[in-house]
Design goal:
Blueprint (H helix, E strand, L loop, with lengths): L4 H15 L2 H15 L4 H9 L10 H15 L2 H14 L1 H16 L4
Protein name: Chromosome 14 open reading frame 119
InterPro entries: DUF4508
Pfam families: DUF4508
Amino acid sequence: MALSNSEREIQCVTHWFKSWSPFQKQDFLKDLLDKLVPNNLDTLFDSMKGLGVSDRPPSIFQCQLKLFSEWFGEWNDAERNDFLLRLRGLDSEFVKTFEEEAQKLTSVTPT
């Protein structure tokens, strides 16, 4: 049976995840949190910093994050949950940290 596009995309991102350094995983964690809580003020400032012009082409990691962002936006809730389950199988501490940070962000009430 052929895999769906989203299944192939999830496999691709989990493959990349395995090769990412701890620092890259931290950047990815921030990206995931930004997707969970899009109105996070820090996200706005990070996005503004990212607008800087550079003479260098983007890194492979930056390209991977860009593709992930495009794909993640198209995934339904079940596919997103499947993705997190697969990440948990690869790095349970990463997912635990993600869930703790997500809980903090979603439990904060605006003043």
